[in-house]
Design goal:
With 347 residues, the protein is an alpha/beta fold. The chain has 2 domains: 230 residues, QueA-like (3-Layer(aba) Sandwich), CATH 3.40.1780.10; 96 residues. The chain is built from 9 helices and 19 strands. The strands form 4 sheets. The protein has a 9-stranded mixed beta sheet with strand order 3-2-19-17-15-4-13-14-16. Strand 10 and strand 11 form a beta hairpin. The chain is globular and about 60 Å long.
Length: 347
């Protein structure tokens, strides 16, 4: 599978690989998306903007260089100065994550210097490269330094440096995502207008999308990490009125599925407000809210790919991947897209 190697106007030239409710596959173009949905459907997107979450630093005790990739933070969103982070040794995104050297051995209490900031390791989260760190500065000082010195998390398949705004979707708002909620790249204002003209509705939630790869198989197996989200009352109301009227809830991206299904886990109804999406969605998950997903093309073995198995059988999802490879769909964050209408949902 080829990866998209550059930020491109995905909303103009993306290809769509569609799986309908019966498991049939067919190819479409971006402009065909409104025809795949129906009047009364509700599209829900993640409006999180991406943080400059890749930071160069130094392990003070050893003097060795580090790359720190912020990967999560506890609730509440506001003014948090503690983060979960994945730590690499010397180097940057130009080297594949699988080939990156390990960081020096880190211990609780170790000091880290990140540009003009000082931080301290406050916990090792069950893996030598997964830590919790605390910045020893007021939140406003920390955020200013991160904005000046951080970069968006990037991977070797995109060779040219990304600017932060390259990772923002058209609806980006509160900066809480550690990587782009990249399914949203398929949207532009023209497409939103088309959806409305075809009788679909649109809503957003905010989900702190985490990192997609650590380069370490053991650590990757723990992805996705717990991710905070916030669902506005207006979005929860639109979901309820859509379902009551027989419309379908269309999730734009895996983070939207995680947020909505977590919020509805107890009652089957989406509760507004803040929450923390935990666990991994897969073939054994019974979806209670989301009827279809629009997502990037994800590789087998990743948590994103596993989540797609909640919408159809493993055999259908495997056939989707085979078709995507056969027809040269582009994978990863700037690639093409899949549209999966959940098995058993009324069309």
């Amino acid at each position: 599978m080829n990866a998209a190697t550059a930020r491109r106007p995905r909303a103009q030239d993306a290809r769509l690989l569609v799986i309908d409710e019966s498991g049939r596959l067919f190819d479409r173009k971006h402009r065909d998306l409104p025809s795949l949905l129906r009047r009364g459907d509700l599209v829900v997107a993640n409006d999180a903007a991406t943080l400059p979450a890749s930071l160069s630093g130094v392990h003070v005790q050893s003097g060795e260089p580090l790359e720190i990739r912020l990967a999560g933070r506890p609730l509440p969103f506001d003014n948090a100065t503690r983060f979960i982070a994945v730590v690499f040794g010397a180097g940057d995104y130009r080297t594949r994550t699988e080939d990156r050297p390990a960081p020096p051995v880190l211990h609780i209490g170790d000091a880290l210097r990140v540009a003009s900031l000082h931080a301290r390791v406050v916990d090792i989260k069950g893996h030598a490269r997964l830590i919790e760190l605390a910045f020893e500065h007021p939140a406003d000082v920390m955020w200013e330094a991160l904005a000046r010195n951080g970069r968006p998390i990037q991977y070797a398949h995109v060779p040219q440096p990304l600017a932060l705004w390259d990772t923002w979707t058209s609806v980006a708002a509160q900066p809480v995502a550690f990587e782009a909620p990249s399914a949203g790249f398929i949207l532009d204002w023209s497409m939103l207008g088309e959806l409305r003209r075809h009788g679909m509705r649109f809503a957003t939630l905010t989900h702190a999308a985490g990192i997609s790869s650590t380069g370490d198989p053991g650590l990757d197996a723990r992805l996705p990490l717990d991710e905070p989200y916030c669902i506005p009352a207006s979005t929860a109301t639109l979901i309820e009125t859509t379902r009551a009227a027989g419309g379908r809830v269309i999730a734009l991206g895996t983070t939207v599925v995680r947020a909505l299904e977590h919020a509805a886990r107890d009652t089957g109804h989406v509760a507004p407000g803040r929450g923390l999406a935990t666990g991994r969605i897969g073939a054994a998950t019974q979806l209670r809210v989301v009827d279809a997903i629009i997502s990037g093309v994800h590789e087998p073995g990743t948590s994103h790919y596993d989540l797609l198995s909640a919408f159809h059988t493993d055999a259908v999802i495997a056939r989707m991947w085979e078709e995507a490879e056969k027809h040269h769909y582009l994978a990863h964050e700037f690639g093409d897209a899949v549209v999966i209408l959940r098995h058993g949902v009324r069309s």
